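Per-record layout

source: Pseudaminobacter soli
name: Glutamine synthetase
length: 477
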Amino acid sequence: MPPAKKEARPNGRAGRTRVPAYVKNKRGVNTWKQVGEWLEWREIEDIECITPDQAGVARGKMMPSSKFTSNTSLALPSAPFMMTISGDYPEDGNGFAYPEDDGDLKLMPDLSTLSVVPWEEDPTAQVICDLVHQDGRSVEFTPRNVLKRVIAAYNRRGLKPVVAPEIEFYLVRKNPDPDYPLVPPVGRSGRPIGGGAGYSIAGVNEFDELIDDIYHFSESQGLEIDTLIHEEGAGQLEINLRHGDPIELADQVFMFKRTIREAALKHDTYATFMAKPIQGQPGSAMHIHQSVIDKKTGKNIFTGEDGEETEAFRHFIGGMQKHVPNALVMFAPYVNSYRRLTQAASAPVNTKWGYDNRTTAFRVPRSDPSARRVENRIPSSDANPYLALAASLACGLIGIIKQIEPDAPVGTTVNEDEIDLPRGLLEAVDLFETDEELREMLGSSFASTYAAIKRAEFETFMEVISPWEREYLLLNV
C-alpha cells in the first residue's frame, strides 16, 4: 500500500491527510478534545485567556497550552472590572460598594472564540472568556454578561436581535508625549494625509501595506470584513462588518480593535478609536444597524406580511428616542466623547428619526422590506462594543414592551437644531442612574458600578490643566 500523502501544516511541517475541518479552520471546535487537536495541529505554545473590562480593554491571563487543556481553573479578581481607564477605583456610594475581599471570579473560556494571535512571533492562540462567581452564577457587572442579559430578555419573548456595527478610527503618527496634539500620518506618497478624502480609493491606497496586514491578521482570526473605506477625516478609515448575532459581532469588534492597533504598530503608526482625536477633524463613530427576528418564523418583525412597517418597528424606534439619551454614557463613555457630539457636526445630537437621513440619530436605511432595520448613529468608536450593543438593544426592547410611540419621521436637516442629548459626562451619568427601566434591563449591579467608574473618571480628568486654560487664562484673568 502506498504511503499516505502528506500536507503542510501552518508552520511548514508535514502531517497526515484527512485532518478534520475544525482542526484546520476552527469551525465546530466545541469540546476540549477538539481544542487539544486544534492546538496541536498549529503547535501552539501559549494561550491568551482574555475578557473585556468596562472600557473594552482585554484583561486576562497567559498560560502554556498544555496547562490550558488540563482543566486548570482560571481566576481573576473582580478589581479590574471596577477600575477606571486611568487605573483608579471609584469611591463607594449611589449603590456602588467595592467588595472588601475582592474575591476571585472564574474565567470560563468560550471555545467558539478560539483563534490564533497572528502578530505574535511564537505560536500563540487566544480565547474570549466569560466570568462567573465561584458557585457558577454569572457576574452581572461584566460587559459580555451585560449583553448576554439583554439577549436573554429578547429570547424570553421569542425574539432574536441582529446587528451590524460600523467602526471608524484614525491612523496617526506615533505620539509618545501626550502634551502634543495628534497629527495625521505620512502615507506612501511621502506627504501628510489631508482631510476631505471621503470614499477616496487613493486615500485607502496611501496605507496599502498596513491595510494588507489588517486583512491578513483578520483572516487568520476568522474575522470577516464586509467593506473598508476612507472617511472624511485625515487618515480616518471605517470598517463595516456583516450582520449577525450580537455576541459574535461584539466579539469581532473587540478583536478588530486589537488587530488594527497591532497592524498599525507594525508600520510605526498608531491606530486610535478616540471619539475626537484631532481638533478640526470629524469624530469617529460606531454606528449600529439593528433588526429583530421572530425565532419561530425566522422573519423580521419590523416588516409585516404586506411588506409594510409594523407596530414593533415603530415601538422599537420609540424606545430608542425615549431611552437612548439616558443611556448616552454607554455610547459616549469619556469626556472626549462629547467633543464629537457638537452642533452642526457630522455626529447627530438629536433624538429624531428618518428614512435615509444621516442627520438624524436613528436612520432607517433604504432596503428591501425583509431587511428593514434601524441604524443608531449616536455611539462613538471609543465605546465598549458589548455595552453599546447592550444599551442600544435594551432601549429598543423597552420600546417594544412598553409600546412607546415614536415622533413623526423627519426628512430635513435636523443636526443644526438644539442639542437633545446630555452635553457632558456627569449629566449623562445622572440621567443613566435615574432610568429604572434601563437599570432593570441591564442589571442593577452593573448600573451602579458603571456610573461610579464614570464619576471617578471625570474627577481624574478635572485634575488635568488643559492647553486652553494656559492659552486664555494664564495672562488674562
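summary: The chain is about 30% helix and 20% strand. The CA atoms of residues 114 and 127 lie 4 Å apart.
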